[in-house]
Fold this protein.
Amino acid sequence: MIDRILRHRIEQQLYKGKAIILMGARQTGKTTLIEQMFPQNDDTLWLSGDDISTHSLLENMTAARFRQILSGKRLLVIDEAQRIKDIGLRMKLVTDQIKDVQLVATGSSSFELANRLNEPLTGRKWEYNLYPLSFGEMVHHHGLLTELNLLPHRLIYGYYPEVVVSDGQERRVLQQLTESYLYKDLLTLGQVKKSDKLVSLLKALAFQIGSQVSYSELASTVGIDAKTVEAYVDVLEQSYIVFRLSSYSRNQRNELKHSRKIYFYDNGVRNAIISAYALPEDRNDMGALWENFVISERIKRNEYTDNYCNRYFWRTRTQQEVDYVEEYDERLYAYEFKYNPKKKAKMPASFIEAYPEANFLVVTPDNIEEFLLTSQNRQGISSLELKS
């Protein structure tokens, strides 16, 4: 059993008068985590948004009826809360009127759940995102050396919990994950009208990880208009399938100012979408896979450790580029990602000229643990070898 890092952060906020909202893609372990933290017993009421009886129970719910239902309870858990009509108002009743009951809710679509909670629960909730398993969690689980040895495997099959524990069955699990959950859940959202176009868009994005994307070019490839592409990408991002990086610029003349890259939160999902399971030595996309893996793992690491920053890539019209840039209080940390440790990389001359104060690090499998496990603060990066 893997002890999820997020558990300790949630435990610190329990019974302090605010709802706990746990969001993340399907099959990332939200329900499992909550079940481990709050075993079902006499002082806990569990409700599921997937159960039609829950919808009937909560319809026209009043504070008085909530008090009756929750009599003797200390905890109310609502799983897949985004499926319940007016869930934000129902949760507001609990947090405002029944203060001795801790409310915990999970959801697999930030678009649906956030829209239903933001106004009713303003100032009344703590929100957390749960991603697929992380490099840091797996190091904690079975040690650094084992996880470093498994890096080639992770780059192909990713970190979804069921994939990690299904040795030898990774392809089957990933196909079920993408076909039964990913597509199914996305198509239940009102913004997605054409399933074949969504599948085509996901495939196009999978082939373009690490590259700049154009909504107009994607629209031409998929056969829909650019505004629909952007709307679908919004849904994919809010469903924790992909995330975007925008280009960094301080108005230098030669910098790209409105470009974007789109990555997947999990390498395994990306590879399943295009059925690309070849071994690393037989692939020509390892650079892109490494970049996708490292950036997604960095996002997990930063969020789980409250290490908040702005994140970008940087590129000029003359094709000089930095893979990834983090900004902390206007201080810049620039990174290049190389799967082959022998490949040389250096900070572009125009980046040095524009941002001489920036730190620079090349991240390879040889030093990945420093990038994903060591502490970074706003005064600098500790215990990292910086190259400029």
